[in-house]
Amino acid sequence: MPPVAAATVGRVTTDATDAPSPTRYRCEACGNLTRFDVVTSRRTKAFHHYSVGGELTVEEEQVLDENVEEVTCRWCGHGSAVETIEPGAVTVPDGATGVEGAG
């Protein structure tokens, strides 16, 4: 998987080098392609590196197990109408929302 830039959250810096590929979703109820609430459980293994000053940097994080528990459309609230779409199956022009009439 491609490397992902490190991120700092509070006093913790993470280096998500083994980040999973993003999954695309589509709501069949309203046509939404861009806004979803996703509940995910992950089990990870990571190297925790503390500086002498006590700041933590999380490096070499590996996802050992990942489970998407729930996906809900942010626009219409449907959870049962959301489907997973194949990468590259949807092409949306720059600036478009992916739904006709929305903008």
Short description:
This protein is mainly β and 103 residues long.
What does it look like?
The chain has a domain at 1-62. The protein has 103 residues and is mostly beta strands. It has a 4-stranded mixed β-sheet with strand order 1-2-5-4, with no helix packed on it. It has strands at residues 7-9, 12-14, 24-27, 36-50, 56-73, 82-85. Strand 4 and strand 5 (56-73) form a beta hairpin. The chain is built from no helices and 6 strands. It is elongated.
Sequence-ordered SSE layout with sheet pairings:
Elements (H helix, E strand, L loop, with lengths): L6 E3 L2 E3 L9 E4 L8 E15 L5 E18 L8 E4 L18
Parallel strand pairs: 2-5
Antiparallel strand pairs: 1-2, 3-6, 4-5
Shape: elongated
Helix share bin: under 10%
Oligomer: single chain
Tally of strands: 6
Amino-to-carboxy terminus distance: 33 Å
The parts where pLDDT drops under 50 for at least 5 residues are: 1-5, 98-103
- As a percent range, the share of strand residues is over 45%
Biggest sheet: strands, sense, closure?
A: 4 strands, mixed
Q: Give the integer mean of the pLDDT values.
A: 79
Number of separate helices = 0
What is the CA-based Rg, rounded? 17 Å
Strand order of the largest sheet: 1-2-5-4
Give the helix/strand class: mainly beta
Series of secondary-structure elements, N-terminal to C-terminal: EEEEEE
Key phrases:
elongated; 103 residues; mainly beta; two-stranded antiparallel sheet; 0% helix; 4-stranded mixed sheet; disordered C terminus; single chain; disordered N terminus
